[in-house]
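Much of the work behind modern protein science is quiet bookkeeping, done one molecule at a time. The protein below has been through that process, and both of its lines are reproduced in full.


***
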Amino acid sequence: MTALRAILLVEDNPDDEKLTLRALRRGKIGNEILVARNGEEALTTLFNLDPLPCVVLLDLKLPKIDGLEVLRQIRANERTRLLPVVVLTSSSEDRDIVESYSLGANSYVRKPVEFEQFTDAVCQLGLFWAVINQPLPQGL
């Protein structure tokens, strides 16, 4: 059996971070959850991880380097260009959605405002990307 690969959560809002971690635990996601609280920390963490995480849950409105630039750099790097990235954000602006997909986001999920909906959405994301989805083989 292969070891579970981590999930990288990129989130600067402490409340959303706590809710996301709680939802993943509630969904019985056994993967290690790494947290980066700004775009610069996300890229540093990601480019130094081995193995790569199974998925990046990426907020767009981040300090230092915004989420769209983080996504741009992930896709520009040969090692991370195919890594699944789910934009998990409060933005419902059309330009953010279009730009995220244009830059290669695998999914765009707007954070629900209501607690139960937020928890359910994150739990489903975690189950899909960490359990159901077949990841790329390591080293590709």
